[in-house]
Chloramphenicol phosphotransferase
Amino acid sequence: MSHVEKPGKIVILNGTPRSGKSSIAAVIQNSFKGVWMNLGVDQFMKMTPKSYQPGIGLRPGAEHPDLEPLIVTMYHALYESIAIYSHLGLNVVVDVGHHDGYSVPRDILKECSKILNGPEVLFVGIRCPIDIIMERRKDTWNRGYNPDGTVPRPVRLWQELVHVPGIYDLEVDTSILPPEECARIIYKRLNDGPPPSAFRRISEEVEE
């Protein structure tokens, strides 16, 4: 495989469902200079056979331990694909929800960070308070709080686990900023620096 002289840029948006990742990815793809390919979780799930759904979209809570080894492989395939696109000079934006809330620790984020140890990767944390997440869930899916007024366990687990270990190059809060402003901040960081380092730090993190 021939590589171009300058690899494509990579932006990975990490956050919970309904945090606004897809909206930011769409702005990046449609407004940033150059060709930006979207290899996010929704696109990957569309390629996944029905019997293996939700694939990499599996929420925390160890609900399907039988799928977990396959999900590890799927994440590796996704990140190998990201690397290939970048090596061929195509920019990539990825919206995902990394967590380690499986039946056993899987260390997927750390392993994926090692796959992308060549090209620069801007790792962006997409923050959003849980009350706003609940409003968006109700507006989108008509699903809200439990009858007793508590937050459903899967939603709470997403909120607790998606930002572990919390090592990012940049963080934005979509309850405060619209997608266009989040994308503008990301664009400025890509072009003005400093160089991203989150994935390197994650890959080198020593387990205690």
User: Anything to note?
Assistant: The radius of gyration is 17 Å. The mean pLDDT is 92. The helical segments are 21-31, 41-46, 68-87, 108-115, 130-141, 153-161, 179-192, 198-204.
